[in-house]
Amino acid sequence: QVQLVESGGGLVQAGGSLRLSCVASGRNPYAMGWFRQAPGKEREFVAAISWNGGSTYFADSVKGRFTISRDNSENTVYLQMTSLKPEDTAVYYCTAGLIQSATMRPFGSWGQGTQVTVSS
Fold first, then answer.
1. Whole-angstrom Cα distance, residue 34 to residue 48?
2. Of the candidates 70, 117, 62, 56, which has an alpha carbon nearest to the alpha carbon of residue 91?
3. CA–CA separation, 9 vs 32, rounded Å?
4. What is the pLDDT of residues 54-90, one digit of tens each?
C-alpha cells in the first residue's frame, strides 16, 4: 500500500497562491490526484494527473486556477493553487487511483492531509 505525506498548506489571503506537495513511498505507477474536504462537507475531487503526466483533470470549481504536476523521479505530486478563494478552504488530501470520466476513483489510501485556509 502506498504511503502518502502531504505538505504545503497554510493561511493565505484571497487571491493568493499556495503549492501543495505529496510524497509517495516507493515507486507509484498510478494516476495521482488531490481531493479536499471542508468542514461539514463530503470529500470532493479537485485534480488528477496520469502516471506519465500527459493528462490532467480538474474539477470545474478550480479550472484555470489550479495546476497539477508530478515528478516521478522524486515520487512527488504537486498542486499549484492560484487566485485562491475563501471557498477553497479545506483539508487537502492526495491519493492514488484510477482516472474515470475525467475524475478519479481513489484506491482508498490517504495521507494525513494538509490544511488550506483562505481568508477574505
1. 6
2. 117
3. 18
4. 999 999 999 999 999 999 999 999 999 999 999 999 9
pLDDT given at position 81: 98
What is the 3 state secondary structure string of the chain? Answer: CCCEEEECCEEEECCCCEEEEEEECCCCCCEEEEEEECCCCCCEEEEEECCCCCCEEECCCCCCCEEEEEECCCCEEEEEECCCCHHHCEEEEEEEEEEECCEEEECCCCCCCEEEEEEC
CA distance 97 to 103: 10
Yes or no: say if 20 and 35 are a contact pair by the CB < 8 Å rule.
no
Please, are residues 21 and 9 in contact by the beta-carbon 8 Å criterion? Answer: no
Give residue-wise pLDDT tens across range 11-40. Answer: 999 999 999 999 998 777 899 999 999 999
Q: Which of 25, 41, 40 is nearest to 96 (CA)?
A: 25
